[in-house]
Amino acid sequence: MIRVNVKGIAYDMSGNPIILLTDQEEERVLPIWVGLLEAHSIAVALGHIAVPRPLTHDLFKSACEAMGARIAQVVITDLKDSTFYAEVHLALPEHGLVLDARPSDAVALALRAAAPVYVTDKLTEHMLLVKDLFDEETRAELEKIFELTKEYKKSLH
User: Fold this and answer.
1) Signal peptide location in the record (predicted)?
2) Distance, CA of 74 to chain centre
3) How far apart are CA 58 and CA 116, in angstroms?
C-alpha cells in the first residue's frame, strides 16, 4: 500500500466532481469520480469550514467516538467495473473493525478524523503522472493555486 494525500476536488468537463489523491511526492494522482453531496462534504473537511449542524460524516465520526472507536485509516482497495471500493478501519479498545465503504465516504471520514488514506499496490497502476496531465503553463498556475491554498490553511490554525 502507499499513503496518499487528498489534494482536492476537481471537476470534469461535464461538471462531475473528482477526488484527487496524490502520492507523497505529488508525482502521481488517482482520480476518483464522486457524487456532488460527497464532494461537498469532502470540500467542507478540506477547507476546515464550520457548519452549523453536523453533516452525515460528522455524525458517523461522533458516533464512533461515543462508542470508543477511532477511525484509524482508510484504504482504497479495488476497482471493479469502473467502480472503486474502500474500507474504513476502526480501532476499538480490544479489537479492530473493517467496514466496506464508498471511497468518497471513506475519504470524508478520514479527513475529519485526521486518519491516513492508503491505496493498495494494485491500484497504483491506475495512477496518472501529474506532469503528463497538464501543459507547463497550466502546471505553473496550479502550483500557484496550491501554494495559496497551503498559506490559507496555515492562516486558519
Assistant:
1) none
2) 9
3) 17
As given in the structure block, the three cell numbers for residue 51 are 457548519
User: Domains in the chain, start-ordered, CATH in brackets?
Assistant: 2-156 (3.10.690.10)
Note if the pTM is more than 0.85: no
Find the Cα–Cα–Cα–Cα dihedral 52, 42, 97, 61, rounded to 10°. Answer: -10
CA distance 21 to 146: 14
pLDDT for 149:
64
User: Is 112 buried (19+), middle (13-18) or exposed (0-12) by CB count in 10 A?
Assistant: buried
Burial class (CB in 10 A: 0-12, 13-18, 19+), 66: exposed
Q: Where are the alpha helices (DSSP H) in the chain?
A: 36-46, 56-66, 103-113, 130-133, 136-156
Radius of gyration over every alpha carbon of the chain, rounded to an integer in angstroms:
16
Non-local (6+) Cβ contacts of 96 within 8 A are 72, 89, 90
